Amino acid sequence: MRPLRSADFDRVLELERVLFGAGAWTYGMLADELAALGRWYVVAEPTGPDAVAVYGPGPKPVVGYAGLWFDGDVAQVMTIGVDPYYQRHGVGRALLEALIERARTLRAGAVLLEVRVDNGPALALYERFGFERIGLRKRYYQPEDKDAFTMRLDLAATVAPEDPGTRDQEPEPSAPDGGTPAGDAA
Ligand SMILES: CC(C)(COP(=O)(O)OP(=O)(O)OC[C@H]1O[C@@H](n2cnc3c(N)ncnc32)[C@H](O)[C@@H]1OP(=O)(O)O)[C@@H](O)C(=O)NCCC(=O)NCCS
Q: In this protein, which residues make up the domain named N-acetyltransferase (predicted)?
């Protein structure tokens, strides 16, 4: 997992077309999105001996990508996609974990997202993480003309898996300068 760079644009746009068809982002949409305030995008690359055996020692192709927008209050999953060849191997889960962890770091109160009502794999992924359906947006996806569920993961009500014992610990001392939470979002 690493930050998305401009050198990844062609590969991400290729995956967009494969995964989202007519609804795929264009170069301009992706560039505008990445330049907007509060965005955080990551990509996944294969690692380990198998990846070296297949692709050699050099750079590996991006096999997944995901992005988050934090507006100072809540975080929004902007996109998540995995190369069909690599699906059902935990890449989507790793990407979504990274976004949720980032949202926690930013002290977001919740993570929101929209998902097509007929997108079974994505719905299963989100529900597995505890996202709940909170609304229906009619004809949200264009030009496909499909409805979307709005889903929400309440971070205030959940404890991070890697931080299970916080209720029994002393509270953290405040930053001496009254510092703000970590993060680069505006
Ligand atoms: C949704 C998507 C990102 C999932 O990526 P993935 O790498 O295949 O997901 P994972 O292998 O990490 O799966 C994690 C969990 O999600 C659920 N899941 C993922 N794909 C599923 C499928 N096809 N059917 C049922 N459950 C599925 C399962 O609970 C799975 O856990 P399990 O493998 O232990 O059963 C991928 O299918 C994708 O890119 N779809 C096209 C783009 C898209 O629709 N993005 C979402 C837009 S809102």
A: 1-156
